[in-house]
Amino acid sequence: MCAKGIHAQSQRKIVVIGPDSLNLVDYEYTIHVHGTTFIDVATFIDNLLIHKLSSNLEEATFIIPEHIKDSSYVIKLSIGTSNSSSTHAFFSENVVLTNDSAIVKIPVIPVVTINDYYIEKNNRITDGRNGILQSKILTVSYYQGHQPYGDITFSFSELGGFHGYPLVLFGPAIGTEFNFEWNSDFILGPKVGGYFSTAIFNFGLFAVAYTDFDKASWYLKPRIGLNPLTPFVNISYEYAIRLSPNHFGTRINVHQLSINLNIPLHLDLNRYNHNPQYYQGTLPDD
User: Fold this and answer.
1) Where do runs of H (alpha helix) occur along the chain?
2) Where are the alpha helices (DSSP H) in 37-184?
3) 238: helix, coil or strand?
4) Using CA atoms, how far apart are residues 110 and 119, in angstroms rounded to an integer?
5) Ramachandran region of residue 213, left (φ > 0), alpha (ψ -120 to 50) or beta?
6) Contact residues for 78 (Cβ-Cβ < 8 A; gap 6+)
7) How far apart are CA 195 and CA 155, in angstroms?
8) Residue 53 parent element (H or E)
């Protein structure tokens, strides 16, 4: 879509025609116009023109102040709610004033963009709960204590981020630990619990039932550790608190260090990274 030049006028102006099918009961729609050249934030704010839409196909006329000398302008439509600071930048178009005026028609808003489940706030895709995106996580771990152990855990986690960068991962988890003795000394440790992982640190708590398929020993295992600036990699210390008789001696690690890799299995990076197809409504909704 491009701007259409019209006959020169005594004043420079941009006429923006709003989209059809506005949901004015649940949402607020605001058109923003600003020049593409500015020195600092104060200049940008001073040059920002705003108009709130109150009806379908409403025409908003923006008179360009004389102090704004730009020939190129950005027209945006944001969608928000009256009780929230969340805004969803649905439409953005660059317009060049070849004459003194231009007309811009904003297309119809796809239904997918006005679903409460996805509203953009501070460049984050949220489900209405302040920057949280749900994801299925597979955690693969290696433990080192008296004996080495492996671990595979599955979780339904919540992922929070800022400016498209994931910072927090947390949720309930279920999985199993296992040693690498593929003989009569083999031990399996089904487990259930939860964890919280940020870009800096992590902690968690799991209940584990170690078994050789003949006897079982129950343990409670808190963990705490540091992360290398991502919640997807954890370096942790774990301590095993015995809750029942130990049938396996030193084959159960009381103290152990672990490296955990949290792998997203169902994280919609198209939406999370603001793929333009999502805003155009061409990506399917979940």
Assistant:
1) 41-46, 269-272, 276-279
2) 41-46
3) strand
4) 14
5) left
6) 29, 30, 32, 87, 88, 89, 90
7) 9
8) none
Is there a contact between 212 and 219 (Cβ–Cβ < 8 Å)? Answer: no
Query: Within 13 Å of residue 218, how many CA atoms lie on the same side as its CB?
Result: 4
SS3 call for 90: strand
- Quick: pLDDT tens for 62-121: 988 887 778 888 898 888 776 655 566 677 888 888 778 888 998 887 655 544 434 433
Q: For residue 90, how many other CB atoms are within 10 A of its CB?
A: 21
CA-closest candidate to residue 260, choices 152, 172, 188: 152
What's the whole-number mean pLDDT along residues 14-20?
Answer: 90
Nearest CA among 68, 75, 85, 91 for reference residue 22: 91
| Cα→Cα distances 245→146, 190, 212, 221, 273, Å | 18, 17, 14, 15, 50
Q: From CA 86, how far away is CA 80, in angstroms rounded?
A: 6
Residues 6+ apart with CB under 8 A from 275: 269, 283
Q: Which amino acid is at 282?
A: T
Report whether 124 contacts 162 (CB < 8 A). yes
On whether the pTM is more than 0.85, the answer is: no
